[in-house]
Design a protein that fits this description.
Layout lengths: L4 E6 L5 H9 L17 E7 L2 E7 L12 H13 L3 E7 L6 H11 L5 E6 L4 H9 L9 E3 L8 H8 L14 E7 L6 H9 L17 E7 L2 E7 L13 H15 L2 E7 L6 H12 L3 E7 L10 H12 L7 E4 L11 H12 L5 H14 L13 E8 L4 E6 L7 H15 L7 E5 L1 H16 L1
Helix pairs in contact: 11-12
């Protein structure tokens, strides 16, 4: 079976995201002194003793208010609980039991899921026991005093938690392909996530900035596991104030960094904007594989030439990312969405691919035969001695030459293009390192000195 899920439930601002960060051992969940920061349900890996599990953060539950996002947050929390093995109900020890806590406790008692009660903000051990004792009235069993900020008391709670989780030999893990969904606000990222998962995993709203945390979702297909990461829409830096959106965008950039493949979502109605170009630069800078997903294709009036016109628009605007496959989809209707993971598989394979030194040098010999390196005004010609792949993810090739300065940008692009044409590398950037003779001599001398020592 896959990793069991532990759902974190509670009112707004009781410290759920801080507690999730404590369990996951990092600071990925956004913590900010403002109600409603967490909206969707976000999944994070965690472990205690010999047990691995997934912890899912949820938005603050409010049952008697239907304004703004609150009904949608309730739906997300209920969906998290429906798939959870255990729920942890987080309350505020400094505030004491509230009517909202009582409503959530009543609701939890009606669910067929074991629930543990974590009384947060109990920084003092002695005072914490007194604070926790107030919550026996909720009728959910023993209240555990904890401090999510400092970590005190969490050990006793987690010891009880793992008694409700399956044993280690019942759990199997498979390698995950991490796929980040990025783009400007309102291009349809959350709709795409929902279309790929076949359920309402993320809240979809015309209001810009609905998604705040990076939302992790596991999808299995053809015995492969994909971790889909929905991210906040990335706006221009000058339009972003310090606060929830600032942290959201940082999470989106981190999601790009930890992804194997980026689904770069573009709104076909807006075309490729200046902000899209900056995002494309960021993807290349991080060395991520990518698929360009052109969304809202259902909203375009079409004739026999429409697709070619839009493909040319992409080629003209994103010419520096021509290695990435593109697909025109509608997340709303599901049109061609099922083909996206096929492109992801191809991009991942190329991103991780290694090519032998002999093959690389065959490509170089053929390239030099057709187009010799340039000659300087002083009559000095560039020479390529040999090349070898030095790393993958992304593929990086070192070219050893007599002098890198003798190879202009035009010739460097030519060599890059020859590698693309002969070796493929579809869906991934490749990096070429031009290393001169002096560098090679220095490395050889350093190695000789090390050998003598």
């Amino acid at each position: 079976m896959p990793l069991p899920i532990v759902a974190i439930i509670g009112r707004p601002n009781v410290g759920k995201s801080t507690f999730v960060n404590r369990l996951a051992g990092d600071q990925q969940a956004i913590v900010h002194d403002e109600p409603g920061i967490t909206r969707d349900r976000t999944y994070r890996p965690a472990f205690w003793r010999d047990r691995d599990f997934q912890v899912v953060d949820t938005g603050g539950l409010v049952f008697d208010d239907d304004t703004e996002f609150l009904p949608l947050i309730r739906q997300q929390a209920m969906a998290a609980l429906a798939e959870a093995a255990v729920a942890i109900f987080v309350v505020d020890g400094q505030t004491g039991p509230t009517e909202g806590d009582r409503e959530i406790a009543d609701w939890l008692r009606q669910q067929n899921v074991p629930a543990l009660l974590a009384v947060n903000k109990c920084e003092s051990v002695e005072q914490g026991l007194i604070q926790a004792a107030q919550f026996w009235e909720l009728g959910l069993g023993e209240p555990y005093p904890i401090s999510a900020i400092h970590g005190s008391g969490t050990g006793d709670l987690l010891d009880e938690l793992i008694t409700h989780l399956p044993s280690v030999d019942q759990i199997s893990e498979t390698e995950e392909i991490k796929v980040a969904i990025v783009g400007r606000p309102n291009v349809g990222k959350s709709s795409l996530l929902n279309a790929l998962t076949g359920e309402q995993r993320a809240i979809v709203s015309p209001i810009s900035g609905t998604t705040r945390d990076a939302i992790d979702t596991l999808v299995e297909r053809d015995e492969k596991t994909y971790r889909l990461i929905d991210t906040a829409g990335i706006r221009r830096k000058k339009n972003v104030d310090y606060g929830a959106e600032f942290f959201s965008i940082n999470r989106a950039f981190k999601a790009i960094r930890r992804a194997d493949v980026v689904l770069f979502v573009i709104d076909v109605l807006d075309g490729v904007t200046e902000q899209d170009l900056k995002l494309a630069d960021r993807i290349i800078e991080e060395g991520r594989a990518a698929v360009i997903v052109v969304n809202k294709w259902d909203a375009v009036e079409k004739d026999s030439n429409t697709i070619y016109q839009y493909q040319k628009m992409l080629q003209d605007r994103l010419y520096f990312m021509d290695w990435a496959e593109s697909i025109f989809i509608s997340a709303m209707t599901g049109q061609r969405v099922e083909k996206i993971l096929d492109l992801v598989d191809t991009a991942v394979g190329e991103h991780r691919r290694r090519v032998s030194t002999s093959v690389i040098n065959e490509v170089l010999e053929e390239a030099v035969r057709w187009h010799t390196p340039p000659t300087t005004r002083q009559g000095k010609q560039g020479k390529i001695y040999y090349g070898t792949q030095v790393s993958s993810q992304p593929p990086a090739i070192a070219l050893f030459v007599n002098d890198p300065k003798r190879f202009n940008e035009g010739y460097r692009r030519y060599i890059d293009r020859q590698f693309r044409e002969q070796l493929g590398f579809s869906g991934t950037p490749i990096r070429l390192f031009w290393r001169g003779k002096k560098v090679r001599d220095l490395e050889r001398n350093t190695a000789n000195r090390a050998t003598k020592v």
